[in-house]
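Handout, section B. The chain below has 265 residues.
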Amino acid sequence: MALRQWSGLVDAYRSTGHRVDLLEPLPGMPDMVFAANGATVVAGKALAARFANPQREAEAAVHTAWHQRNGILYGGGDVRQPTAVNEAEGDFAVLCRRILAGYGFRTTPEAHLELAALTGREVISLELVDPRLFHLDLALAVLDDERQHIAYYPDAFSQQSRQLLDALFPDALIANNHDAYAFGLNAVSDGLHVFIPSGARHLREDLAAAGYWPISVDLSELIKGGGSVKCCTQEIRPAMIATPTEASVTGEVQADASDTPSNAR
């Protein structure tokens, strides 16, 4: 059942035009399905994970090797090894000009500094306080990175972090507790399609009202293991590629298949 549901997620991505690359599953690493935790790629620059729990430590090397082999596809290949604990996109939500970074349960604030130094982007630290929502990607979703549009569940954050989110994102969609605990915010968006766990009914309606195209994905078996759509998806954000125009003026254009999900089992 879990494999069939995971395959349904892969099919949903491909049916909307996304490229999906797969990691081969390895014995003794059952959590490899949660690919979001393996690395963070921003503009072709990759920061490897350093897991909080020893049971997942070996996964980091598998992800590093994949990026070293395939980085040429997105303008990268060099993978920065961290010194601080970070669980990658589990706690890093990437927008076009800034990165939101969670701490409190897994990723440490020191890792936020490492990501800022690597990417040159502003990194905003957000404190998580609900142990049921132990990663940022369970409490917040990026809906449109260019428009800086997000959805989040306020009670997952400390008071100071809630105030910061309210000030920075006044037009954010606010999830209720039912949708948050159904892992509704563990979603992936390409700016139009939002791949969302099927149990998040209210949030799905809010997304449609806001002009998005929500695509429900049943990952109920994987939710039992602590993750859903976003947890299963590592997004590859390629480097900008300079291309000349007909007038020989160099311009910056985004590489094809921007934010292509990379899915692992």
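Note. The first helix runs from residue 2 to 15. Compare this with the example in section A.
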